[in-house]
Amino acid sequence: MSEQERATSTKTAIMQAAGELFATSRFHGVTARRIASQAGVSLSTIPYHFGTMETLYKEVLMLACETSEEARAIAERARSAKPSEGLRLAVRFALEYYASEAIPWPVQLVGREILDPTPEFLEIVKCKFAPEYSWMCEIVGRATKRPSDADAVGFGVVALHALAEAMMNYRQIMKVIAPTVLPTAEEKDEFVEIVARVALDAVRRYAAVFEERADR
Questions:
Q1: Within 10 A of 115 (CB to CB), how many other CB atoms are there?
Q2: Shared domain check, 74 and 113
Q3: Which of 98, 156, 167, 187 pairs as cysteine with 202 (C-beta 3.0–4.6 A)?
Q4: Which residue range is the domain that position 17 belongs to?
């Protein structure tokens, strides 16, 4: 292994360990020593590669907000499909993304940041997180025949993700107050249709209220 490959491998191990710890303990609850121990590297390796903990946290957030290869593949399929079929592909992907019992650390970390954002995340929202949502806005825009950058389309995408994310964040609550929802969600086609229609309805209702008001 070359020196460059060794450095890349070390940096990847540190970011993976840091991501797992930040996702469960937040930024101020994690020390460089804990990260080094989990990554299996010396303590001095962290400042060598990242300088400060703030820089490490920002790079981990950037990684967590990246669109996965799976998402890119789904986006391409959705773009080439009919608008209604593309929307349902996007919905199915979102539901499956949040449905895992073992929640990946990027999902946990981003979810935690959405509820209580750090300055680092607010910066990344503009340069990374929002652009990564653009493919979903494109798909919803096609399905509703509206520009992908329209506020109504963005609202529909947020509604779609909120429903999908509920499968993760409110799973235990739903088992108590709505016990048949999770089994219903396992009937993928029917549940995908429900979420797709909610997203479409969110776009239309937002546009009907706020775009009409803007035209007055």
A1: 8
A2: yes
A3: 156
A4: 3-64
